[in-house]
Amino acid sequence: MEIVVVESYRELSARAAAVVGDEIKKNRRPVLGLATGSTPEGMYAQLVRMFNDEEVDFSNVTTFNLDEYAGLHPEHPQSYHYYMRQHLFDHINIKKENIHIPQCYNQDVSEFCREYDRSVIAAGGVDLQILGIGGNGHIGFNEPGRYLNCLTHLTDLTEDTIKDNSRFFNSPDEVPRQAVTMGMGSIMHAAKILLLASGNSKARAIKHAVGGTITTDFPASLLQLHRDVTLLVDREAAALIEK
Ligand code: F6R
């Protein structure tokens, strides 16, 4: 695992966007795996700027998002469909048919999940997967536990995640209790992984992710088994690995 420590969230966002931009430029049909949440917001803002400055063209890009809450309409302001339109897709020239985001609203979830995995394979697999990390070590919504799923699936969110993500909702009661997420196996199949983390609240998770026991109780620890992971962190998130 390559570890890059930067001084600020701004630098982290610019570096992450540059990695994505390079992948798009060097690949004729780039396939990106995308995350939501607070961490990649600055990266998306940079990518929109790069598109406006004609540094990057999204017309041949295909994307697969990691996850989506169960039961939230795609127009719901806290849905990841909405997030992706707001932060990226509404501002760039990506083709609608090349955008893939898990859905779990009024449909057969297991059939949807199988179809999602088939679409990733049909696209040739993910070239560059962007990841954030949960305070409890989750990746996508692969939550800590005795087992991890390989493929896309419906999952229960842990109390930790519900509490963490309640900051985006009016109250913890409004946070959906389930989500659809790509599985750990699908994520580990990406050719390259870029894991982003910023701030003190991620320092403990980063420490467990980069060293120590590989365990389903801390899903991010499995990334140690991947052959091409770059961890891009600011000083605060790196605090416990720098010591
Ligand atoms: C979101 C996702 C999650 C987040 C993680 C960190 O698509 O897959 O695993 O990356 O919960 O979220 P933030 O960046 O909000 O701290």
Q: Can you put this structure into words, describing what you see?
A:
The chain has eight helices and ten strands. Strand 2 (31-34), helix 2 and strand 3 (62-65) form a beta-alpha-beta unit. Helices cover 31% and strands 17% of the residues. The chain starts with a strand and ends with a helix. It is of the alpha/beta class. The strands form two sheets. Strands 1-10-9-6-2-3-5 form a seven-stranded parallel sheet, covered by helices on one side. Bound molecules: fructose -6-phosphate (F6R).
Q: What order do the helices and strands come in, and which of them pair?
A:
Layout: E1 2-6, H1 9-26, E2 31-34, H2 41-52, E3 62-65, E4 67-69, H3 80-87, E5 99-100, H4 109-122, E6 128-131, E7 153-156, H5 159-165, E8 178-181, H6 184-188, E9 192-197, H7 203-210, E10 229-234, H8 239-242
Helix pairs in contact: 1-2
The protein binds fructose -6-phosphate.
